[in-house]
Write a structure and sequence with these properties.
- The protein is α+β, with helices and mostly antiparallel strands.
- It folds into two domains: 3-179, Beta-Lactamase; 192-338, Reverse transcriptase/Diguanylate cyclase domain (Alpha-Beta Plaits), CATH 3.30.70.
- 46% of the residues lie in helices and 22% in strands.
- The chain has nine helices and twelve strands.
- The chain has helices spanning 3-18, 26-44, 74-90, 151-182, 192-209, 223-230, 232-248, 273-286, 314-330; strands at 48-53, 63-68, 102-108, 122-131, 134-143, 213-220, 255-260, 263-269, 291-292, 296-297, 300-306, 336-338.
- The strands form three sheets. A five-stranded mixed sheet has the order 3-2-1-5-4.
- Helix 1 (3-18) runs antiparallel to helix 2 (26-44) and helix 2 packs antiparallel against helix 4.
- The protein is elongated, with a radius of gyration of 23 Å.
Length: 340
């Protein structure tokens, strides 16, 4: 591949990342990184393109966004994590242990059988991504076999680092600012403003793509009595522990929200009502052994509703989920109810 063609393709990647300053959340950033990786596959003729992201980039701490020419097996995933740690150390950055990194999957282009050796990721090239002296990530290029990038490819990659670092900084800054204004200070879940925005965006996406979407509404049963008996600090502790347990029961792509007081909501993109009901049961089970003080069980009333032809707006979906929640309360609390 001619160096000029390679440089042009990498400029396209930088332009894609420049759009990241309009990212609404980490999922939008992941989509852009996936698109950029597809350009790098052509430009550098490589097998693996990985972005090591800082803890502030995702809700779950340090992460590696990886796109590859084949699905990575467990050995290749471990190899990639180890190569990421080694690259960070090589650039003078103290990394967390390899197992701490969450793996975010981007594009997987071809079946595993199409490559001769996919149980290891060999490091071919890596660069720290910076903007004005601040580290914003690490770009790693790898191969399923141990070979050397051409000088032209390395030169083009080197030229792409600065604009990519600048664009990634802009994207992460926007996401962090949005998180601060959309995050509940007590639990770390989305607040009411974040919920309204996430639900509106996901309803639009579901409608455009004709995809499933479900909403779960949750109330902590007799929470006022818990506050009255044990005090508000104990009530706050219950909310924090509930939020942590619910988060562990959900996918990365789900949105946990605290709407106020003891009321929570969960937005489930690309999930139909049947599966959402199972998710709600799993959430209830994850919280089932919580107690306030030494003896008072903490239970949840939960309502589930899915997007369908009769639900034309976010408010319609909220109304149906609320109706299901009230049905759960009327039936005796500590249960999951579906919209009628």
């Amino acid at each position: 591949m001619h160096a000029t063609d390679t440089a042009l393709q990498l400029e396209d990647a930088a332009r894609l990342l420049a759009l990241a300053d309009a990212c609404a959340d980490s999922r939008d950033l992941e989509a852009l990184l996936t698109r950029v990786a597809s350009v790098f596959f052509q430009a550098a003729q490589t097998d693996v393109v990985a972005f090591a992201l800082p803890p502030t980039a995702t809700p779950h701490g340090p992460a590696i966004h990886v796109s590859s020419r084949a699905p990575l097996n467990a050995l290749a995933e471990r190899s990639l994590r180890e190569q990421t740690v080694a690259a960070l150390e090589q650039h003078g950055i103290e990394p967390p242990p390899p197992e701490v990194f969450e793996l975010i999957r981007g594009t997987e282009l071809t079946p595993l059988r199409a490559v001769g050796r996919a149980d290891q990721v060999h490091p071919l090239w890596s660069k720290a991504l910076e903007f004005e002296g601040e580290l914003v990530g690490m770009l790693l290029i790898g191969g399923f076999q141990d070979w050397i990038l051409s000088a032209r490819s390395e030169q083009a990659l080197d030229q792409a680092v600065a604009p990519i670092g600048r664009a990634l900084f802009q994207a992460l800054s926007f996401i962090q600012l949005r998180n601060r204004t959309h995050e509940d200070a007590l639990t770390g879940a989305l607040n009411r403003r974040g919920f309204d925005e996430a639900l509106r965006r996901e309803v639009d996406r579901a409608r455009r793509g004709r995809r499933d979407l479900s909403l779960i509404m949750i109330d902590v049963d007799r929470f006022k009595a818990i506050n009255d008996r044990y005090g508000h600090p104990a009530g706050d502790d219950i909310l924090i522990r509930l939020s942590a347990r619910m988060t562990r029961a959900l996918r990365r792509s789900d949105f946990l929200c605290r709407l106020g007081g003891d009321e929570f909501a969960i937005v489930l993109p690309e999930v139909g009502e049947d599966v959402a009901h199972a998710v709600a049961e799993r959430v209830a089970q994850a919280c089932s052994d919580l107690v306030a003080g030494d003896e008072t069980p903490v239970t949840l009333s939960i309502g589930v509703a899915g997007l369908n032809l009769a639900v034309g707006s976010p408010s319609d979906l909220v109304r149906r989920a609320d109706e299901a929640l009230y049905a759960a309360k009327r039936a005796g609390r500590a249960r999951v109810s579906r919209a009628g």
